[in-house]
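Re: weekly structure request thread

Next one in the queue (116 aa):
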Amino acid sequence: MFIEVLKSKIHCARVTDANLNYQGSITIDEDLMDAANMIVGEKVYIADNNNGERFETYIIKGERGSGTICLNGAAARKVQPDDIIIIMSYASMDFEEAKRFKPTVIFPDENNKIMC
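Done, posted below.
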């Protein structure tokens, strides 16, 4: 049996931009992607702490060190700059493997920088 479990989470990142005039996705600072063990094109689930919106999209790489968290296209209508969001990705794995698996969870600061 395979189940879906949390693989990676960027907890409480601040939205820096919402770009309606761009084909869908979320742009994430490459430093945050690396720290959270996420990759370009990966499907992510977004939860907006400010308005309760929840939706799925995929990742595009943002400039390293920029702190960028930008929702693009239709997703831009679901957030506002400065909203606090949670970005999660999941993986399918064998039930026994899932029991041992530990997700990568990061907690960026108010500027979306990785806290030490």
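Residues 31 and 64 are 5 Å apart (CA to CA). The chain has a mean pLDDT of 96.
Next request, please.
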